Amino acid sequence: MDSIIVKGGDNRLVGEVRIEGAKNAVLPLLAATILADQGQTVLTNVPILSDVFTMNNVVRGLDIEVGFDEAANTVRVDASGEIGSKAPYKYVNQMRASIVVLGPILARNGHAIVSMPGGCTIGSRPIDLHLKGLEAMGATITQKAGNIEACADKLKGATIYMDFPSVGATQNLMMAATLAEGTTVIENAAREPEIVDLAILLNKMGAQIKGAGTETLVIKGVDKLHGAEHQVVQDRIEAGTFMVAAAMTGGNVLVKDAVWEHNRPLISKMLEMGVSVTEEDAGIRIQSDVSRLKPVMVKTLPHPGFPTDMQAQFTALMAVAKGESTMIETVFENRFQHLEEMRRMDVHSEIMRDTAIITGGTPLQGAKVMSTDLRASAALILTGLVAEGETLVGKLTHLDRGYYKFHEKLAALGADIKRVDSEEYDG
Ligand code: UD1
């Protein structure tokens, strides 16, 4: 299995980096293509990531034609004709986000069977909001033998209040509602840019959705949807990761195509720390002087709050700012595993339930560490950039789910980093 080796110390990042289309946008967009029973749907700016291959396979498993032209970053989907109702376990189990096919399959076929995502049970990693919303629209849901089965001859519009603005549940319900009879109102809906991107595609396909990006979505059901063409929005989390990398290394980097508005919560915290963040025509420029960085307090929240998907990377930035910073994680439980790994690199942290206190500005040491999840893997690599000596980050399957050529992009900015087959590496 591959590992990344970073030689720390002098890794001031300088130059320009280009951002891909957003993983978290393209996965629900691919699910949306299931709804079009006429014509092709063409998605451009599609990132080449293992999660995208997995979602393509989930859709193919429904007897839908999916072609991925990687050289052109374009996916073409033809979902016309009869399609299957069962999303196969072998792909769904690889990726929790596959659950977003439940709403579209049900809306299109009146019947859907989807394996429990990621092999986890509803109790420990809930999808209750997805299911409650579909039930409110008239679906009957049963769970047996590791599958979720949903039936409804015709979904009916409903007013649904979500206890928490879940991104995936908002996407699932929004897609189901496009073909329901009557109007659906989703209150306390998620407001992430990826929700807006999905609504844009669905409206191009003939849906009638209003309010995307606000807390109330109004979806007037239509009889049919057709194929459409759409460019995937830029990845704000990949952009944010490079912004943090530049700031940590005292660099000067233009993150091309990064969208200011989408990264507002991150930018505000970087400015508070003393990082220079400026908007240019081509993207966002980061300049920083590490010796002047100040500690901050950050709390993760649903959008437009600080994104939980930037939490791990931001703790790496906190580790280089002299003084005590606080990170409060309110979206996911147990999302501080990277801090346990970072201890091997002498990052000082104290964790009390949802709060981590990070004492930054002390010398960091390279070490062998393991990625515990996608964003943790990026955070460990960033820490390796500034730690003395060599850091080896293993279990890159996590990294490949969400970052395209991460080490090559960092190397092009001047980092001393390479990817190796661990079996061959005896360091
Ligand atoms: C999406 C993102 C993920 C990001 C997360 C929060 C994709 C593919 N993934 O995940 O990268 O970290 O948003 O910004 O877009 N919850 C419930 N019941 C539910 C659903 C969720 O209690 O039915 C809880 C979850 O346990 C979690 C919180 O809500 O604590 C947020 O989850 P959610 O917004 O649903 O995240 P995802 O859509 O899974």
Automatic annotation (TrEMBL):
Residues that hold phosphoenolpyruvate according to the record: 23-24
Subcellular localization: Cytoplasm
Catalytic site: 120 (proton donor)
Pathway assignment: Cell wall biogenesis; peptidoglycan biosynthesis
Record's keyword terms, sorted: Cell cycle, Cell division, Cell shape, Cell wall biogenesis/degradation, Cytoplasm, Peptidoglycan synthesis, Pyruvate, Transferase
Principal cellular location given in the protein's record: cytoplasm
Any Pfam family hit: EPSP_synthase
UniProt domain Enolpyruvate transferase: residue ranges: 10-410
Family matches, as InterPro entries: Enolpyruvate_Tfrase_dom, Enolpyruvate_Tfrase_sf, MurA_subfamily, RNA3'P_cycl/enolpyr_Trfase_a/b, UDP_GlcNAc_COvinyl_MurA
Reactions it catalyzes: phosphoenolpyruvate + UDP-N-acetyl-alpha-D-glucosamine = UDP-N-acetyl-3-O-(1-carboxyvinyl)-alpha-D-glucosamine + phosphate
GO molecular function: UDP-N-acetylglucosamine 1-carboxyvinyltransferase activity
EC id: 2.5.1.7
Binding site for UDP-N-acetyl-alpha-D-glucosamine: 96, 125-129, 309, 331
Membrane-spanning parts: none
Modified residues (2-(S-cysteinyl)pyruvic acid O-phosphothioketal): 120
Function: Cell wall formation. Adds enolpyruvyl to UDP-N-acetylglucosamine.
NCBIfam families linked to this entry: murA, PRK09369.1
Family of this protein: Belongs to the EPSP synthase family. MurA subfamily.
Designated name of the protein: UDP-N-acetylglucosamine 1-carboxyvinyltransferase
Organism the protein comes from: Streptococcus gallinaceus
Name of the gene encoding the protein in the UniProt record: murA
